[in-house]
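RECORD TYPE: inverse folding
INPUT: structure tokens
STRUCTURE:
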């Protein structure tokens, strides 16, 4: 049986905050950025327990990469540059080789590992907040945590890109 999650950015948050809930609206995860001038560390929590930290690497400048330390292992996420769609590759950890790929308009995403679909996400078009509905196809609890981490990375990347374009 699949799990349905929803991720959205909280409005009017100084440091930045994301809420991840289930299909009934109950909050399951909370992601918050620490105050920093250039490169904040984001902490992902479930029931007030830290399950992951996400930090973007500042060097090298030509490569978008994030370091993740989590309960499902430590790994890196690298974004493919010069592509029509967003594509992220996982390096290291339990999900080494996993790919998160989006469509041209950043409204649909899929997470695959070893040619197996772990999750898929759809963005909501008419929404004040950046919101995605995520369906986790794999029943393993690590898959839900991994998918949540990947969606946080995706939202951070989209946020950074929109801030840089202004």
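DESIGNED SEQUENCE:
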């Amino acid at each position: 049986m699949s799990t349905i999650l929803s991720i959205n950015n909280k409005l009017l948050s100084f440091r930045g905050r994301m809420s991840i809930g289930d299909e009934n609206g109950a909050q399951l995860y909370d992601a918050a950025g620490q105050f920093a001038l250039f490169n904040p560390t984001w902490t992902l929590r479930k029931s007030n327990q830290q399950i992951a930290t996400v930090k973007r690497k500042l060097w090298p400048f030509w490569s978008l990469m994030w370091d993740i330390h989590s309960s499902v292992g430590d790994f890196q996420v690298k974004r493919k540059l010069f592509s029509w769609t967003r594509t992220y590759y996982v390096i290291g950890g339990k999900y080494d080789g996993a790919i998160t790929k989006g469509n041209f308009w950043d409204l649909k995403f899929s997470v695959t590992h070893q040619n197996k679909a772990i999750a898929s996400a759809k963005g909501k078009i008419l929404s004040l907040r950046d919101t995605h509905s995520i369906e986790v196809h794999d029943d393993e609890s690590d898959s839900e945590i991994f998918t949540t981490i990947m969606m946080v990375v995706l939202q951070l990347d989209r946020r950074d890109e929109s801030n840089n374009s202004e």
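NOTES: The chain has a mean pLDDT of 88.
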